[in-house]
Amino acid sequence: MTGNYLLLSGSVLVLLLLPFIPAIAEWLRPTDFAPLPMRRDQPNSLTFFANSFRTRLFEQHGVDLAALKVAPESYEIRTSKALSVGQDVRTLPADRRRALSRALGQANHIVLFRDNAWIAPGSRVRADLYVLNDIEVGEGANLRACLAERNVVVGKNAVVQRWVHGARVRLLGNTRVDGRVTAEYTVMFLPPARFERAGARSVLFGNVAATPAPVELPPPISSRQVLDGDVEIGFDSTLHGDYVVRGDCCVVANVSLTGSIKSHGNLRIGAGSRIGGSLTSRKNLDIGGGSAVLGPLISFEDIVIGPNCRIGRPDAPTTLVCNRLMVSPGSIVHGVITAHEYARVLA
To answer: What domain of life does the UniProt record list for this protein's source (predicted)?
Structure first.
């Protein structure tokens, strides 16, 4: 009888301890030795809204955008309570200007421009806009959402409430994008500016004439070092391999590193450094001026990018993810930027 009780007690004890075995094994022999795996070919497309808007125009309103592009003046568009056709307001007589103004002010409405569009300074546009060619948004205007097939210029002190997309997007000083700004080729912010998400082959911040060349694609990395405590890396001018630092990490200036760094604390990259991998920090990540980083930047808190930095390559777009982002003028990011709280372009 006693043996049966002992067997039952042992079985219960094993069942209670079973869920803790993986945690105990990790504690005894840690396996957190490598930076987070990131695919360099990950598309990271933020154009979902733009593509969905094109689909909405076709499925709900019967607008064949391919046919519209071939014959913009003659293509017939069926207008309705939810869809209006507009043109550059500066070319319209007074009565049609008032009609277009009413359409632009309607919520749950689409205004389609067959050619170029111009939004007057100080206007408040509640409709979603589709522009076949270029759009210029005047100073201090408030825009809800806009898709332009060519160029977008957003004037000073303007606000984009949801999203804006174009082939090329240029945002003048003191603009604010509460959602996302994306482009097929380039997005340019003139400082200061504020946004949450941005994506393009090249996202430019101010004058980028002094930005360094992209980092070359590195060879495969096989070596790895795990360092305990706070660490300073880079007394040799060229370093190879990946680093995992279980504390704060500082990379001295003008260092070339072919691998990646993952820090359990703050991570600071000295000015003029060139990093061929990813940078991951559980706290803050600071990139010194004139640096170039090929791989993703990931921070659980803030990322600060100094002046004249380059992140990614045009042929190898990357990802930047953090809670808050501060970018100095002169920098370029190739790929997608996501700031969970906000991103600021410093003056």
So the answer is: Bacteria
Residue with tokens 């279980």: 246
Q: Decide: 216 and 276 in contact? Cβ < 8 Å.
A: yes
Q: pLDDT (tens digit, 0 to 9) for every residue of the chain, 347 residues total?
A: 566 767 777 777 777 777 777 777 766 766 655 554 544 444 456 788 899 999 999 999 999 999 999 999 999 999 999 999 999 988 888 889 999 999 999 999 999 999 999 999 999 999 999 999 999 999 999 999 999 999 999 999 999 999 999 999 999 999 999 999 999 999 999 999 999 999 999 999 999 999 999 998 877 777 888 999 999 998 765 688 899 999 999 999 999 999 999 999 999 999 999 999 999 999 999 999 999 999 999 999 999 999 999 999 999 999 999 999 999 999 999 999 999 999 999 98
End-to-end CA separation in angstroms for the chain: 81
Per the CB < 8 A criterion, the answer to whether 312 and 334 are in contact is: yes
Amino acid letter, residue 113: F
In sequence order, the 6+-apart residues with CB closer than 8 A to the CB of 152 are 134, 135, 137, 146, 164, 165, 166, 168, 169, 170, 183
Supply the pTM of this predicted model.
Answer: 0.84
HSE-up of residue 151 (Cα within 13 Å, Cβ side):
5
The rounded distance, in Å, linking the Cα atoms of 136 and 152 is 6
Cβ(179)–Cβ(199) under 8 Å? no
Q: For residues 297 and 14, give the distance between their C-alpha atoms in angstroms, rounded to a whole number.
A: 43
